[in-house]
Amino acid sequence: MNKYVFAYYGEPQFKSPEEGKKHMSEWSTWMKSLGRSMIDPGVPLKATKTVSSKGVKDGDGSGRLTGYSVVQTDSMDEAVKMAKTCPHLNFGTIEVGEVMEMKM
Question: Which domains, and CATH codes, for the chain?
Answer without folding.
Answer: 2-98 (3.30.70.1060)
